[in-house]
């Protein structure tokens, strides 16, 4: 079987000197990976060794020439090694490497470099006989855009992968090449002394971050190692580490949670303690944040309203009446009016990534005609709705808590609402939240009268939420 091979092409070969160090350096010396660095300028044909030119259409900076890059990539097929190419041992093996090329091009617009991507490439290279890789480190304004499609049409190229370290810009591709090789080479067969080292690392086994690690001394600057790690109870240690991984992921990379599956009861309890619970359909929800909607988000709130309002209506309410009510009272224009009013607050409950899950409207100022007779200053919880997939996940509870905080901050000493008298689940929910029925009202949707309970929550100091 052939040794896994990677060629790196750059105008700054010395930038890649760290590849002689640490695990990668040992892997090269041991023959576990054939890793060579090439100078792009060796393939420029003019006396100045020019690899770039000004961009067509004008603009700042220079663009790297596709013809020079193609020649450089073609030349990597040679087994020849020299002081400028390869490891500097001066050995000329002759012949060419016939393996298909995987060309890797660092660019901010490329595919994100992930652990799965690194493992995929390591598996291919580790097989040895089918493909080898070439990393093309661009500089300046980048490589002429014709190079990638031209390479993809070549019979000796398996594929071209443009990849990115993240949403930021570097001066060139060398740092990205180093990061890619650090991630890939360590996964090649024999490179790590203990292959199990990668099993529990962040992103390796599943979409969770690695747990924190500790070593001697057990007590350092008044900071102690968690006692469970000194207990000798391997089962307890494993459970603690799993809980730490899940909690860290919630706190630092909650967007990864969508990729989790196979969670057991202990996992779910750990996540719940961190504010993440399954919604109605089992999808993890949270951690949930509640914020005020701002001007311009009326259409977003109206979409939530159009989806959720019908679910709260009695069965006899026709879709025609529901649509008419939504158009008249829950339109983008209606919500923009709420957003523009100093007396109204539109609250949005959002999942990770600011994805809306539900909304509420709190109205302060002058009481409406159907406000309950009650001493003091009241605020109305005019609307509070949650998407079906988030029901049962605590989103509604978070919205009500935020509504209470807003009402108190506005000087209200009680918060009231109307809820359909036949909606037993909603009535039970508001009762658990501290609301009590104080009266009745009629709320008309189209040609149907909805009979509501009017419920009030006391916001006086010392009253529990």
TrEMBL record:
PROSITE patterns reported for this sequence: GNAT
GO MF annotation list: acyltransferase activity, transferring groups other than amino-acyl groups; tRNA (guanine(37)-N1)-methyltransferase activity
Annotated residues for binding of S-adenosyl-L-methionine: 138, 165-170
Cited CDD domains: TrmD-like (cd18080)
Transmembrane regions: none
Pfam families per record: Acetyltransf_1, tRNA_m1G_MT
The N-acetyltransferase domain, residue ranges: 306-460
Top-tier EC class: transferase
Keywords associated with the record: Cytoplasm, Methyltransferase, S-adenosyl-L-methionine, Transferase, tRNA processing
BP GO annotations: tRNA N1-guanine methylation
Catalytic activity: guanosine(37) in tRNA + S-adenosyl-L-methionine = N(1)-methylguanosine(37) in tRNA + S-adenosyl-L-homocysteine + H(+)
Binding partners and assembly: Homodimer.
Role summary: Specifically methylates guanosine-37 in various tRNAs.
UniProt protein name: tRNA (guanine-N(1)-)-methyltransferase
Organism encoding this protein: Serinibacter arcticus
Upper taxonomic lineage: Bacteria, Bacillati, Actinomycetota, Actinomycetes, Micrococcales
Gene coding for it: trmD
């Amino acid at each position: 079987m052939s040794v896994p091979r990677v060629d790196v092409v750059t105008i700054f070969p010395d930038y890649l000197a760290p590849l002689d160090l640490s695990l990668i350096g040992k892997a090269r010396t041991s023959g576990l990976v054939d890793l060579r660095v090439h100078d792009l300028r060796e393939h420029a044909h003019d006396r100045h060794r020019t690899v770039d030119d000004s961009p067509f259409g004008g603009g700042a900076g220079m663009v790297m020439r596709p013809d020079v890059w193609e020649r450089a990539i073609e030349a990597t097929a040679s087994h020849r090694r020299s002081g400028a190419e390869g490891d500097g041992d001066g050995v000329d093996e002759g012949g060419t490497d016939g393996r298909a090329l995987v060309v890797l091009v660092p660019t901010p617009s490329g595919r994100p470099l992930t652990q799965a991507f690194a493992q995929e490439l390591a598996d291919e290279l580790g097989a040895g006989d089918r493909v080898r890789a070439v990393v093309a480190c661009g500089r300046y304004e980048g490589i002429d855009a014709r190079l990638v499609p031209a390479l993809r049409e070549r019979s000796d190229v398996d594929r071209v992968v443009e990849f990115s370290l993240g949403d930021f810009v570097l001066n060139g591709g060398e740092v990205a090449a180093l990061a890619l090789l650090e991630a890939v080479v360590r996964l090649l067969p024999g490179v790590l002394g203990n292959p199990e080292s990668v099993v529990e690392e962040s992103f390796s086994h599943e979409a969770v971050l690695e747990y924190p690690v500790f070593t001697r001394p057990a007590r350092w600057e008044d900071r102690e190692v968690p006692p469970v790690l000194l207990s000798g109870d391997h089962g307890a240690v494993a459970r603690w580490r799993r809980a730490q991984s899940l909690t860290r992921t919630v706190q630092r990379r909650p967007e990864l949670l969508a990729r989790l599956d196979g969670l057991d009861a202990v996992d779910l309890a750990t996540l719940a303690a961190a504010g993440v619970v399954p919604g109605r359909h089992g999808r993890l929800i949270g951690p949930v944040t509640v914020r005020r909607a701002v001007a311009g988000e009326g259409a977003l709130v109206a979409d939530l309203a159009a989806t959720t309002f019908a679910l709260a209506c009695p069965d006899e309410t026709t879709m025609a009446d529901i649509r008419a009510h939504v158009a008249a009272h829950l339109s983008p224009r209606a919500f923009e009016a709420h957003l523009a009013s100093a007396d109204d607050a539109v609250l949005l409950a959002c999942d990770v990534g600011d994805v809306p899950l539900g909304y509420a409207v709190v109205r302060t100022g002058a009481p409406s005609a159907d406000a309950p007779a009650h001493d003091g200053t009241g605020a109305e919880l005019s609307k509070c709705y949650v998407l079906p997939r988030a029901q049962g996940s605590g989103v509604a509870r978070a919205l009500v808590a935020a509504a209470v905080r807003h009402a108190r901050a506005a000087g209200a000493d009680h918060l009231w609402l109307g809820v359909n008298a036949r909606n037993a689940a909603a009535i039970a929910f508001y009762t658990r939240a501290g609301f009590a029925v104080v009266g009745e009202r009629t709320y008309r949707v189209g040609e149907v009268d909805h009979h509501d309970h009017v419920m009030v929550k006391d916001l006086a100091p010392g009253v529990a939420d």
